Amino acid sequence: MADKPEIRVILAAPRGFCAGVRRAIDAVRDALAKHGAPVFVRRAIVHNLEVVRSLEAEGAIFVEELDEIPPGAVVVFSAHGVAPAIAADARRRDLTAYDAVCPLVAKVHREVERHQRHGRQIILIGHKGHPEIEGTLGHVSSVGAHVVNSLQEVAALPVGRDEPAAYAVQTTYSVDDAHAIVEALRERFADLEGPASSDICYATTNRQAAVREVAIRSDAIIVVGEHFSSNACRLAEVAGAHCGEVQLVAGPDDIDWECLPASGVIGITAAASTPESSVQAILSALAGRYRISVEQTGSEKETTVFKRMALA
């Protein structure tokens, strides 16, 4: 032990699973308990491979599209939400379909549908191609819908200044980036409506605030999550604004040990789709190379709990 360098580890709190992720994972397990294996899941239920592999071991089969599922089978839609056309296609295929959409994403769907009824152009602040954005776009059919991810894209919007417009925000988007884009939209449009409360979910907001606090005090940050997870990538971006060394890793095998300091402080956080077991695996790997002392910082207690998905 004396030969190992000493390092202090600060764990960000809150971190890891949010209520929507827990609900989605429970939805697959509940469907398996009710119907037996296999239960099909359209796309990754949440953006984490450890979670996906765990559910596969329990009898879930993940597919990209509904045409990969045999008629009469059971399918669960992911937490990111789907377009109404997907649900209609499931009915046409005689599938028993359960929607594990996060309630906070469903709230965004209701918002854009309301703005559509009022004839407003819809502007979605988010990442083109992300499943949440694709699902939300599917709820817009009678007005124009536009996705923006930068101030330049706001300026280039093909919508007149005096046209009625409304915006919604991807629930896992950067809090700071969303604020800047909303301000630009307010300058751009004379008649603009937005949500009564932020679309960015409580878990995204809390985790970004927590990692910001930890990054200020750290020599390096490890964000535990997948590179294809939006909320993990945003955590890495927020940390990078305050710390010069940030790694986004799914597990210990992904750590670039050469880039970690020989002493000082390493901060750790985890995306909302990352199980705590992944964080513990990182800590075990660090303990194999360092003498570590671990503390947890942050006081934001999350009490949000969503009802389990109803199984008809």
What does this structure look like?
Keywords: 4Fe-4S, Iron, Iron-sulfur, Isoprene biosynthesis, Metal-binding, Oxidoreductase. Belongs to the IspH family. (2E)-4-hydroxy-3-methylbut-2-enyl diphosphate binds at residues 47, 80, 130, 171, 229-231, 273. It is a single chain. With 312 residues, the protein is of the alpha/beta class. The protein folds into 3 domains: 6-17 and 201-297, Cobalt-precorrin-4 Transmethylase, domain 1, CATH 3.40.1010.20; 19-102, 3-Layer(aba) Sandwich (Rossmann fold), CATH 3.40.50; 104-193, Cobalt-precorrin-4 Transmethylase, domain 1. The chain has 10 helices and 13 strands. The strands form 3 sheets. Strands 11-10-12-1-13 form a 5-stranded parallel β-sheet, with helices on both faces. A 4-stranded parallel β-sheet has the order 3-2-4-5, sandwiched between helices. Strands 7-6-8-9 form a 4-stranded parallel β-sheet, with helices on both faces. Helix 2 links the parallel strand 2 (39-42) and strand 3. Helix 8 packs parallel to helix 9. The chain is flat, with a radius of gyration of 21 Å. It starts with 5 loop residues before the first strand and ends in a 15-residue tail after the last strand. The model has no long low-confidence stretch (mean pLDDT 97).
